[in-house]
Amino acid sequence: MTIRAVVWDVDDTLFDYTGADRAAMREHLVTEGLVDGPTSVAEALERWRVATEFHWARFSAGEVSFEGQRLDRVRLFLDRELTDAEAEDWFQRYKAHYETAWALFPDVLPVLDALATTHRHAVLSNSSLTVQDRKLRALGVYDRFEAVLCAAELGVSKPEAGAFLAACEALELPPHEVAYVGDHPEIDWRGAADAGLLSVWIDRHGGHTPGEALAGRHRIASLAELPALLGADTRFGAPSTFR
């Protein structure tokens, strides 16, 4: 089997979303006067994580718009009624801190360079084009990808097969010639494999232990392992520790 293209998740795969989100929220909470001491910060960060995961799941299920989930996250986190304008103003103040913390993981540019001449590249994200286009441009990697597809515009989100197949269609390749790289064991790893792609789980922290090793799924600890896994003609990369 020849893999001709790699489709990438963005947040916590290419871009350190968790690191940027936590750093930004910590700064925002201090600026807003909402925390007092390390314990209060830790509790607030956990509340923000829970609010984000809950309303992101609602968006992924089609229960709320992309913009709506952002406002609902703020309301749940603050535990009070806010108008849309009030919630949006609060979120924009947080967002200003968030954008100053944007960064790629250190293994991203080396692997994109290593695979630049051997594989085609695209993005598939459960976010929106408005968000991810701007982010990829700010991070200096937008031009690395032939296509950027996002759930908000596609009308279907990962782990639904239709999302992964839309990426394959954009590349005009069958699923078995496409690899998908993402950080979530269910949304990315299982979803891509079920859609017929070569599925690669980037498990940077080793925090999950899959119950079984299944055909078409691979687990790596660093993107440095990816070229060898794809059989790329490059000296970059390391033998897989998880595959």
From TrEMBL:
SUPFAM superfamilies: HAD-like. Keywords: Hydrolase, Magnesium. Its cofactor is Mg(2+). Its EC number is 3.1.3.-. It comes from the Bacteria. InterPro entries: HAD-like_hydrolase, HAD-like_sf, HAD-SF_hydro_IA, HAD_sf. GO terms for molecular function: hydrolase activity. This is HAD family hydrolase. It comes from Streptomyces prunicolor.
